[in-house]
C-alpha cells in the first residue's frame, strides 16, 4: 500500500495541539484565520509571532548556555521575522548578499552575522566584508583567494562535510559527496591552504549535517562529532579555536506518525557536551553556535488558499484552489521529499465539521506536480471555502518557484499582540 492509499487526516489533531480552535474557526494569535484572509485575500501565509518566540525560548532553555542561536535566514527571510529573532537575542546565519541585506535591514549587527554557502561570489564577498561580518564559513580554495584579493581582515571558519557515520536528517547535506565545505578526511590537506592567507583570521569550524532531524540523540551525536573535529583541528593548528558552529537541522513534525524533537533529551545531553569541550584545552573557551531555521519558524506558519472549484475525474475528487506549488513547493512534495506525503491540512473555518470526504487538493498551475495533498480526509468542500496547510512557516514562499505561470505572489502576514500586519510582498 502506498502512503497515500489511506485517507490522510493528521491536520486537525496537529491544529488542535498548536493553535486555538474556537467554534468552527482556526485561530492564529487570537484572530480567526477566516477574518484575516477576509481582509488580505488569498493565497496568504500567516505567521504567529508568539509561536516563533516560544520555539526560540524553548531551544534557548534546552541549550542551557552551551550554545548561542543564530537564526538561519533561508528558512524565512522576511526582515520582520529576522527582527523578531534579533529581539530574542539571536544572530543571523545567511547564505547570500540578499540575506545579508535583509538581516541588516532587520537591525542585526554585522558582527552577529555569519555567512555560509558553496558559491559565494566576489561581489557578495566584497559587500559583506566591506559592510562588516562576524564570520565567513569557507567552502573552497577559490573563496580563500577571493577574500585575499579583497584584502580586508575577516574572521573565517572552515566548513566541514562530516564523514558518513556522523550524518543524519531527512534531506542529507553532509556525510556524502557534496559541494558543501571540505571533506572531513581532507582536513590536514585543507589547513595548508590558509598558510599564506594574510587577511583571513581562521578561527573555527562549521558543520551542517542535514535538515529535519527529529531524533534528539542523533542531533547530540552529530554535535559530539563536531566537537571532536574541532579538537582535532585545534591540535593540528596548535592553537585555540574561537568558534564551533554545530549547524542547524532541528526538525518539526510534518507527516502522520512523526513526533516533535524532544528538547528534554537535548537538554539532558548538554552537560556531556560541555564536558567534552572542557576536556580539550584548545577548544574549551570556544563560542558554540547552533543555526536552526525550520525549528524556529516552521510550526508558526500556515498557508491559506481558497477553493476555486471541485470536480471529479474517474472517481477521484479534485479540489482546485487558488494556491499551489508556486507559493509552497515543499507542501507539493517537490522540495527534496523522496516519498510524497501530505502536509497537515485543515479547513480553517470548518474545524468541527465531519471529515467524511476525501479529495486531492491541487493548485492552479498546468502541471500535475501542482498537487498540495493526495487522498486528504476533509469536510465536503465547495468553491469559496478555505483550506490551510499547517507547518508552513519555513521554506514556503521563498523556497518556491514564484515566477512559474506568473500568478501573483502570496501575501505574508504576521500576527502579534492581537493584530496582524502584512510583512511580505
Ligand atoms: C549551512 C546551513 N545552516 C543552516 C541551515 C538551516 O537548516 P534547518 O532549517 O534545517 O535548521 C541550512 C539549511 O539548508 C544550511 O544549509
Structure description:
By secondary structure, the chain is of the alpha/beta class. The protein folds into 2 domains: 11-48 and 299-422, Lyase, Ornithine Decarboxylase, Chain A, domain 1, CATH 2.40.37; 50-297, TIM Barrel (Alpha-Beta Barrel), CATH 3.20.20. It contains 11 helices and 23 strands. The chain has helices spanning 11-18, 33-40, 49-63, 79-88, 97-105, 122-131, 141-150, 187-190, 216-237, 263-278, 294-297; strands at residues 20-22, 25-28, 31-32, 44-48, 68-72, 91-94, 113-115, 135-138, 154-161, 171-172, 182-183, 200-207, 210-211, 243-245, 287-290, 301-313, 316-321, 345-346, 357-362, 371-378, 386-389, 411-416, 419-422. Helix 6 crosses helix 7 (141-150). It binds pyridoxal-5'-phosphate. Pyridoxal-5'-phosphate is lined by residues 72, 74-75, 93, 116, 208, 211, 247-250, 291-295. Residues 72, 74-75, 93, 116, 208, 211, 247-250, 291-295 line the site of pyridoxal-5'-phosphate (PLP).
State the major sheet: 9 strands, mixed
> Would you identify the regions where 5 or more consecutive residues have pLDDT less than 50?
none
CATH evolutionary superfamily of the largest domain: Alanine racemase
Chemical compounds bound to the protein: pyridoxal-5'-phosphate
Q: Alpha-carbon distance between the termini?
A: 41 Å
At the first level of CATH, what is the class of the largest domain? Alpha Beta
- How many beta-strand elements? 23
Count of separate structural domains: 2
Structural class: alpha/beta
Helix count from the secondary structure assignment? 11
- Write down the overall mean pLDDT: 95
Range of strand content: 25-35%
